[in-house]
Write a structure and sequence with these properties.
Blueprint: H1 7-17, H2 21-25, H3 30-33, H4 53-64, H5 78-94, H6 109-120
């Protein structure tokens, strides 16, 4: 697997999507409301960037269509396309064959950790979690 850091692309991203601190402090989420203003709350991984235009467009579409129910998993839906893309990626980059039917797309880290603990441990087992990233959320 090859990775390459391009400072120019990183700068373009920062200029386009970084939100001012004043905007972030107006948010009502736990990250920005739990501590006093003089504390910069870096303890929780929350999006402190503006959403990509494609994401904003989809959210706007769902909002205008008043489509806010639970998603229905179908074989032509995005999560299945993601599972197939993940399987192709792992085969190409790591020679690791995965069945897309066994890939589950999740929308947040704590949910994924919870499911992993349920799947791969028994009551009374000890577990190790990387902290401090998750300590405040568990």
């Amino acid at each position: 697997m090859s990775t390459h850091y391009d400072a120019g692309i990183a700068q373009q991203f920062a200029e386009q999507y970084t939100l001012p601190l004043e905007t972030l402090r107006r948010r009502q989420s736990m990250k920005w409301q739990y501590h006093a203003l003089e504390i910069l709350p870096a303890w929780v991984a929350e999006m402190d960037f503006a959403p990509a235009p494609a994401v904003a467009d989809v959210l706007r579409h769902w909002y205008l269509a008043q489509d806010t129910g639970y998603p229905y998993r179908q074989r032509d839906r995005a999560e299945h396309l993601l599972a197939r893309a993940f399987s192709r990626y792992t085969a190409r980059e790591f020679d690791w064959e995965t069945d897309p039917a066994n890939v589950l797309a999740l929308n947040e880290l704590v949910q994924a950790v919870y499911l992993l603990i349920l799947a791969f441990s028994e009551p009374g087992d000890g577990i190790v979690l990387q902290i401090p990233q998750l300590s405040a959320l568990l």
